[in-house]
Amino acid sequence: EEQVIVLREKLAEMYESEHQWSKAAQMLSGIDLDSGIRVLDETYKLSKCVQIARLYLEDDDAVNAEAFINKASFLVSNSPHEVLNLQYKVCYARILDLKRKFLEAALRYYDISQIEKRQIGDEEINEDALEQALSAAVTCTILAAAGPQRSRVLANLYKDERCSKLKIYPILQKVYLERILRKPEIDAFAEELKAHQKALLPDNVTVLDRAMIEHNLLSASKLYTNISFEELGTLLGIAPQKAEKIASRMIYEDRMRGSIDQVEAVIHFEDDTEELQLWDQQIVGLCQALNDILDSMTSKGV
Amino acid sequence: MDIEQRQTEIIDHFVKQAEVMEAASLSALVLEATSHPSLFAFSEILSSPNVHKLEGTRYSSSRDLLRLFAYGTWNDYRSNAGCLPALLPDQVRKLKQLTVLTLAETNKVLPYDQLMQEIDVSNVRELEDFLINECMYVGIVRGKLDQLRRCFEVQFAAGRDLRPGQLNNMIQTLANWVCTSDNLLQTIQEKIKWADAMSEAYKKHRKEIEDRAEDVKKSL
Amino acid sequence: DNSLLRQVSSLLRRLPTMESEKFQDDFL
């Protein structure tokens, strides 16, 4: 077995040098890490699992990569090896991303982007890598299905001053402020996306389209008391029937509050705060405005 | 940061510039000020001495334009276009934004038809896009669009420069508000007293009933 | 001060706009 392992590692190295990532991964995956004959130490096992997963991810093969990352998950919890742990985290985030579990991926990317050390073992952590992780966190959050949890993550990212330096910041700002995104902005954002983030979903809509339509629908709910589906379709850039279908699904999934009048072909948006609360807020706003004026009068010596 | 805070620095900047400029360059300043995306108030610049001096010169139309942006609307411009300089697209947008603010001064519910007529747009989509992108997202108004009733409900609108004579209205409105609030507080006080009295009476009545019940029990 | 006046003017627009008796009760 010893010779077989050496042989496999050598071959894998050659495949890797020729960028034949999956073949290299398959070569390494032939190593029996759980053999009863030879006892391998935990760090070696973990390093092999992570290495195989990374090779599969080079070809965006999330399914095989996940298998090895799952294996690694039993080893990583008590591994003292920081570099391997970090590589494990990066692989896990990328697998979630490839599997379109965008919100979970965003949280993992964001976690990675907050690493403070610049030197882990013999591996140097450069700013670009951290910025890339942060940008990936923003992209995945924007692509995630609209809803309360996504809003919380968006708020975190928007308030993180490092984000203001990212190229994607203008989109993050608009999405956070729940503003309607227009087609040119969406197209510019799409250029930054990876292939799997633009893949078609079963109902013939891309991930990006669905995220943008749902986002714009929620933004419209902040601007309109009610709107006809015809106008809503124009606003969202889709057919009125499709607009109604997406709106009804979001209401059904409790990700947007409202009601649909199919006879009039109109949707009525409801605020998620009670009438009385709204009234209270207006009074609070009024008093706040009055206070502001009094403050500025004081500061001007009036 | 609200619109007033944002534009304070911009106003200071233009006022300082106006203080050291000649008439010819003041025209360029007026153009720049009335095109600035974050500036919606012009009375400070208007009251600058050098701007006053434009009166009666060949640059007086710049001063008239500044006064229009301080107090006027898009319709005002159209009815005086002959004696005012042609506007750039940024200035046109600005004047239409200011028109919405003026309309919001007198009404909280602005009908689409009136808005479309006042800011010269031909369809609902164009009107709503203007209200969304150029007004609500810029932060000068907050409110809700209602397509069924074809109206825009204003919740907040930034203040424009006060036209001469508007101050008295303002003082009157404030006085009314104070009076209303006093009445309201007094009414609340009265209601509290009333509630107390009622609860006292209720307790007393309840006790009487219980006493009588006790008597009846004893006698039985 | 123009800036203060503008702020007050904006504040006035947020005040209750109806003085009717019925509103008085509802307002309470």
Brief synopsis:
The complex is a heterotrimer of chains A (302), B (220) and C (28). Chain B is mainly α and 220 residues long. Chain B has helices at 3-19, 23-35, 43-46, 49-52, 60-71, 74-79, 89-106, 112-119, 124-136, 166-219, and strands at residues 109-111, 141-146, 151-157.
Protein described:
The complex is a heterotrimer of chains A (302), B (220) and C (28). Chain A is mainly alpha-helical and 302 residues long. Chain A is built from 14 helices and five strands. In chain A, α6 (102-113) runs antiparallel to α7 (127-143) and α7 packs antiparallel against α8. The longest helix of chain A has 25 residues, at 275-299. The termini of chain A are far apart. Chain B contains ten helices and three strands, in the order αααααααβααββα. Chain B has helices at residues 3-19, 23-35, 43-46, 49-52, 60-71, 74-79, 89-106, 112-119, 124-136, 166-219, and strands at 109-111, 141-146, 151-157. In chain B, strands 1-3-2 form a three-stranded antiparallel sheet. Chain C has 28 residues and is mostly helical. Helix content of chain C is 64%, strand content 0%. Chain C starts with a helix and ends with a helix. The chains are: A mainly alpha (302), B mainly alpha (220), C mainly alpha (28). Chain B binds chain C through residues 4, 8, 11, 41, 43-44, 104-105, 108, 154-162, 166-167, 170, 173-174, 176-177, 180, 183-184, 187-188, 191, and chain C through 2-3, 5-17, 19, 24, 27-28. β3 (224-228) of chain A pairs parallel with β2 (141-146) of chain B.
Task: For the structure shown, list the relevant keywords.
heterotrimer, A: 302 residues, two-stranded antiparallel sheet, B: 220 residues, mainly alpha, 3-stranded antiparallel sheet, 10 helices
Give the topology, please.
The complex is a heterotrimer of chains A (302), B (220) and C (28).
Chain A: H1 2-17, H2 21-29, H3 42-58, H4 62-76, H5 82-98, H6 102-113, E1 119-120, E2 123-124, H7 127-143, H8 148-159, H9 169-176, H10 183-191, H11 207-223, E3 224-228, H12 229-236, H13 240-252, E4 258-261, E5 266-269, H14 275-299
Antiparallel strand pairs in A: 1-2, 3-5, 4-5
Helix pairs in contact in A: 1-2, 2-3, 3-4, 3-5, 4-5, 5-6, 6-7, 6-8, 7-8, 8-9, 12-13
Chain B: H1 3-19, H2 23-35, H3 43-46, H4 49-52, H5 60-71, H6 74-79, H7 89-106, E1 109-111, H8 112-119, H9 124-136, E2 141-146, E3 151-157, H10 166-219
Helix pairs in contact in B: 2-5
Chain C: H1 2-12, H2 21-27
